[in-house]
């Protein structure tokens, strides 16, 4: 996936991009640590007991962020250390076919998420009005952000 907004011309430029990605992965791992710390410290600080179910969810999310962020950071470090892997990954990532496949996959995923949220919102209204309004609000936020991004990028390009 190419999340850069510039064309990468050589391995040194790509190395910078990979290092930035590695830092983002370390930030994700740190967010996992922060999630676990808040889960364990917050109940004693505010005197509010978290249910076992919610505690399990937060624990899973925290450890998931830590493990995925750490593993990806290690993978990116190995890519940066090997010039052969770096060149191969740069060519792979900036292949026009891969970029088109990625763009289409994001479109399908976004539309699917939008449709599912829409139906959950309207079906959920039969059972829980607050939940339904949250889902409808998510659909509205998605459409608003999409429209804003489309107009912004249209004017820039």
Give short descriptive properties of this protein:
157 residues; mainly alpha; 2 domains; 5 helices; flat; transmembrane helix; transmembrane; membrane
What's the structural domain tally? 2
- Rg, rounded, reads 21 Å
Amino-to-carboxy terminus distance: 20 Å
How can the largest sheet be summarized?
Answer: none
- What overall form do the CA principal axes indicate? flat
Number of alpha- plus pi-helical segments: 5
Number of strands: 0
Report the order of strands and helices. Answer: HHHHH
Label the structural class. Answer: mainly alpha
Low-confidence stretches: none
Residues in β-strands, percent: under 5%
Transmembrane segments: 25-50, 56-74, 105-124, 130-153
Keywords: Membrane, Transmembrane, Transmembrane helix
Q: Short description, anyone?
A:
The chain crosses the membrane at residues 25-50, 56-74, 105-124, 130-153. The protein has helices at residues 11-46, 52-81, 83-93, 96-124, 129-156.
Detailed description of the structure:
- There is one protein chain.
- With 157 residues, this protein is an all-alpha fold.
- The protein folds into two domains: 1-93; 95-157.
- It has helices at 11-46, 52-81, 83-93, 96-124, 129-156.
- The chain is flat and about 55 Å long.
Give the topology.
Blueprint lengths: L10 H36 L5 H30 L1 H11 L2 H29 L4 H28 L1
Helix pairs in contact: 1-2, 2-3, 4-5
